[in-house]
Design a protein that fits this description.
Chain lengths: 394, 272, 342
């Protein structure tokens, strides 16, 4: 297993780990060094890494990945309610349940490809979302969301209002009020929660890196490049696709589980297709098919969401305070479109700009920038770069 | 098959069918029609071990349909294709390939996003590991044995200096060589070539002929569909002529050259 | 029997909306080869054309009443629409009452302009890009459009009145001799008829005009038509405008049935895509058929009798049908071979 990675890959992994683990310090200047936001970076980073294994490597665009995120969240909360507040069973259950769910949906959806696949996954996600709000309310607690409660006093109390936590009870864990998820006693909120997510992110990154460098990963890339050729080369592409789908579903389940671990409430809105769209955007923004890109995209979007949606007119007036009154008012009026509640507008615009001008995402942008810089220095490298054509994203 | 046709080339054909044991591919009475149009009617064909068998015919004669029936892309209405003791009809493309049939497409089909080396290593992996092998932790870069072999095959087809270039940067002729290399590394029992020199300049065509002749010496069986008579007569051991979905002649290049029905079919096309 | 009939009626208006949106989606996909995820947003914009017109007609000035006083005994300050000032109360009242049907005129013009601008400004550049890119960029556009609407109109649904004369319910049962307990809101009936008329108009346009002939030929085989020296590009721009206008008037007329809010476009889009896929990508007839079929199926699934057997079926029936159709009939109900089959 360790032989999978080359020396430069190990270097990449070490740098990645270092950057992730020092985030609480490096994020201070831009005002992002608080646990809630850092946890989101790590969790959505995992979600995007997993999504990228499907979309980035095989080119299959799923519009329903939020379903697995939601399923993972519910599974984790149920593990808290029924078994224990320890996070390990919750993680295991979430990943397993999301994996099974992804297998069922993937098995059916992957019988088609292209736009039909996108619509099938979208249809399945919408079904899950609608069912979570209607028939499955005993499991999901509908619009209120599923929450961790105190241990129930009598067996008559419905499970959604009172928990049992069999393992904790058996071990005689004392609870005061609503308990917080923990890892053998270490509370999973604040910075410990972030570090727990960060370690999982690094492990997740390592696995994705290994997959990308493996025979399996090469087959996935070949599927994206020319699936028809691959079939006539003796490869049965469906099992590979199903495996990629299930793996990326398990990543989503893990991310959902972490959402519940850091904030023990699960709601159906996590399964909505706008959430699926968000992970697509993260991946595209950073660069689909690249390793760092999805994590970068996830971080940027979560950061921008936090910041842009907290800005209000007062902040805008300060920002434009150098301008004369009426001009200032005009700019502020215009800018309110994009901030605060208008955050989604900014998100949509970012989506369009990236797809129109930089389909390879930020990583592609960096590559072009580097190429421009190096070719400016020597003409020899310019001729080299002009013979190797820019690869199109499929 | 009509009585008249049987009379023209029937005897030696029948004798071969019943007697010679070392036939690799046996097309048995295949019939296929599209929306009432007979693309293939009563096609019987045998390909012997180690020979290069050319299928020629005017446009719309059913050549490509026949090839697609052989690789499982099209399911015939009637009849069967038997390869090495296995029925190919109804099998999926990957199963047919795993049995030892490799195919070169009319327009080169390669993995454009991958490098030349990776392009050749993928088929080698599928040959070794079968149609599916879940190995997310086996390093692709660690497949040294396969890489060495791939490098050798790439050098043989003349792409040594492009080995790390992306396939998308190759010329059309070089893509064809790459596709050939992807087939050769699998050591197929049967290689199907669909117009391997289509759209090539004369120089490239000659180079491809030389390459294919070289493979011939390895004893690989080949079926080749081709328009270019220069290519056909340089390579083929035996030729089958299709017209209007039927086999109108079969035999050695010399026999075909002198067959009046073949001349008629081709002249007829020119008049149109 | 009555219940079944009522469910069919219930499905018709919704089915009409699905069919109109799906028709536009299919036209655009069939001619331009573009998967437009912003088409639902066009439906939503059309609905807000009706809201805008209603608000425009209601622009008022303040007038101190000469006769009435407020509870403090001071003269009452009234809001008087300019319309009333200019044309007198009767005309103004009529215009306000009929604002939704009138807004069709506004919606046609506005949406055709929006559609053409969208095609020239954005979609044009995506003809040659992969379907995934088209989906993504139009998805982004859909978010932008709906957020702009939310900024100006707020997040809450804005009810729109149907004209008084058709505000009640029609006694459909009596017409058909099925007894009196089969009544159905007038406006829904009108919406169904309206959608049928629009659908027939679009089909007639495509069938009987030279323009339509070229478009149909282009849907069938784009390259050949291009080779004939016909400027297919400009016609396709007009097709996009047409599709946008159809979606727009569908939205405007739907406002009395469903008070429009900013995310109605997305809600309808997902369903309409499913409709298109069920009908068969690129088949206009299929889109219309599937639209009505799914609308009716959905209303059957909401019957209590059926919900008690299969709880939650009303929530998922459309998606379920889509999954089954996609897996058993790869080309949908009426799709032609070779259209986006992979």
């Amino acid at each position: 297993m360790l032989r999978t990675l080359s020396r430069s890959d190990w270097l990449l992994l070490i740098v990645f780990a270092a950057v992730v683990l020092t985030l609480p310090w490096t994020m201070q200047p831009i005002g992002a060094a608080y646990p809630d936001l850092l946890q989101k970076f790590a969790i959505y980073g995992l979600f995007a890494i997993g999504f990228n294994i499907l979309f980035g490597l095989t080119g299959y665009l799923s519009f329903g990945h939020a379903a697995f995120l939601g399923v993972g969240s519910y599974a984790a909360v149920w593990s808290f309610k029924l078994l224990t507040m320890n996070v390990l069973p919750a993680l295991a259950l979430s990943v397993a349940v999301a994996g099974v769910f992804a297998f069922l949906i993937g098995y059916v959806s992957l019988r088609r490809s292209g736009i039909y696949f996108s619509i099938l996954t979208l249809a399945f996600a919408q079904m899950s979302y609608n069912l979570a709000y209607s028939v499955f309310t005993p499991i999901t607690n509908g619009e209120t969301g599923l929450q961790v409660r105190a241990i129930r006093a009598s067996a008559e109390t419905p499970l959604r209002d009172g928990d049992v936590r069999i393992i904790d009870q058996a071990l005689g864990v004392q609870e005061v009020g609503i308990p917080i998820s923990n890892l053998f006693g270490m509370k999973m909120s604040g910075y410990p929660g972030f570090y727990f997510c960060a370690v999982l992110l690094i492990i997740g990154f390592f696995i994705a890196l290994s997959i990308s460098r493996s025979n399996f990963g090469m087959m996935l890339k070949a599927i994206k490049s020319n699936q028809n050729r691959l079939k006539y080369t003796g490869v049965h592409t469906r099992p590979y696709l199903i495996a990629a789908f299930v793996i990326s579903g398990m990543y989503a389940g893990l991310a959902g589980s972490l959402l519940s671990i850091t904030d023990p409430i699960a709601g159906a809105e996590r399964m909505q297709w706008t959430a699926s769209g968000e992970v697509v955007l993260m991946t595209i923004l950073g660069g689909a098919g690249t390793l760092i890109g999805p994590v970068l995209g996830a971080g940027l979007i979560k950061y921008a969401e936090q910041k842009v949606s907290s800005w209000n007119e007062g902040i805008l007036h300060d920002a434009f305070s150098l301008l004369p009154g009426p001009v200032q008012d005009f700019f502020v009026e215009f800018a309110t479109l994009f901030v605060g509640e208008g955050w989604h507008l900014t998100l949509g615009l970012m989506f369009m700009i990236i797809v129109i001008f930089l389909p390879g995402g930020l990583m592609e942008g960096f590559r072009r920038l580097r190429r421009a810089l190096t070719s400016g220095r020597s003409s020899a490298s310019r001729t080299m770069s002009s013979t190797s054509p820019v690869q199109e994203r499929g | 098959m009509s009585v008249a046709e049987m009379a023209t080339h029937g005897t030696d054909e029948r004798g071969f069918r019943s007697g010679v044991p070392n036939k690799v591919l046996h097309v048995d009475d295949v019939h296929k029609s599209f929306a009432g149009l007979h693309a293939l009617s009563d096609v019987d064909l045998d390909v012997r071990q180690g020979e290069t068998h050319a299928i020629i015919g005017p446009n719309g004669a059913g050549k490509s349909t026949l090839l697609n029936v052989c690789v499982g892309r099209i399911k015939p209405d009637r009849g069967a294709v038997i390869f090495d003791g296995n029925t190919l009809t109804g099998k999926a493309p990957h199963e047919i390939n795993q049995l030892g049939v490799a195919r070169v497409f009319q327009t080169p089909e390669v993995f454009l996003d991958l490098s030349v080396l990776q392009n050749v290593m993928v088929p080698a992996l599928s040959k070794r590991d079968g149609y599916f092998n879940l190995n997310p932790f086996t390093a692709f870069a660690g497949e040294t044995a396969i890489r060495d072999e791939a490098e050798e095959v790439i050098a043989n087809v003349g792409l040594k200096y492009h080995i790390h270039s992306p396939a998308s940067s190759l010329s059309r002729g070089d893509k064809r060589r790459l596709e050939l290399a992807m087939c050769l590394i699998q050591h197929p029992k049967l290689l199907l070539l669909d117009e391997p020199t289509a759209g090539m300049a004369r120089h490239d065509t000659n180079a491809t002929i030389d390459l294919l002749k070289e493979i011939k010496e390895n004893g690989m069986t080949k079926i080749i569909i081709e328009h270019d008579m220069h290519v056909v007569f340089s390579l083929a051991d035996r030729i089958t002529v299709l017209a209007g979905g039927r086999i109108i002649a079969q035999g050695s290049p010399e026999e075909i050259k002198n067959n009046p029905k073949v001349k008629e079919a081709y002249l007829g096309e020119e008049q149109v | 029997m009555d219940a079944i009939f009522l469910q069919i009626l219930n499905g018709l208006d919704k089915g009409g909306a699905y069919a109109l949106i799906a028709l536009g989606l299919t036209l655009v996909f069939g001619t331009l080869g573009v998967v437009n995820f912003a088409h639902g947003a066009l439906f939503m914009l059309g609905a807000f054309c009706a809201v805008t017109l209603n608000r425009l007609l209601n622009i008022s000035f303040e007038r101190v009443s000469e006769t009435e006083t407020n509870f403090l005994g001071k003269p009452l300050v009234e809001q008087v629409p300019y319309l009333e000032q200019w044309f007198g109360p009767e005309v103004a009242g009529f215009l306000l009452d009929w604002s939704v049907p009138i807004s069709i005129l506004l919606a046609v013009v506005v949406m055709a302009i929006v559609g053409i601008a969208m095609e020239r400004g954005l979609i044009k550049h995506f003809y040659k890009r992969p379907h995934a890119d088209q989906i993504l960029v139009t998805f982004g556009l859909a978010i932008v459009l709906q957020e702009i609407v939310r900024h100006f109109f707020g997040a809450n649904p804005i009810p729109q009145p149907a004209p008084d004369i058709v505000a009640g319910a029609a006694n459909v049962g009596a017409w058909l001799g099925l007894g009196d307990n089969l009544i159905y809101p007038w406006w829904r009936l009108i919406y169904f008829l309206f959608s049928a008329v629009v659908i027939f108009a679009v089909f007639a346009f495509l069938q009987f005009t030279t323009f339509g002939m070229v478009v149909r030929a282009g849907m069938h085989d784009r390259e050949t038509v291009g080779l004939l020296g016909i400027n297919i590009q400009r016609r396709f721009t007009i097709v996009f405008g047409l599709a946008a206008a159809v979606a727009g008037i569908a939205g405007a007329m739907y406002t009395p049935i469903l008070p429009p809010d900013y995310h109605m476009g997305m809600d309808f889009l997902v369903l309409s895509f499913v409709v298109v896929v069920v009908g068969g990508m690129g088949s206009l007839g299929g889109a219309v058929l599937a639209g009505f079929l799914l609308g009716i199926l959905q209303s059957f699934a909401s019957m209590t009798a059926i919900k008690s057997i299969l709880p939650g079926i009303d929530q998922i029936i459309i998606y379920l049908v889509a999954v089954i159709v996609l897996l058993t009939l790869p080309r949908g109900l009426m799709g032609r071979p070779g259209v986006a089959e992979d």
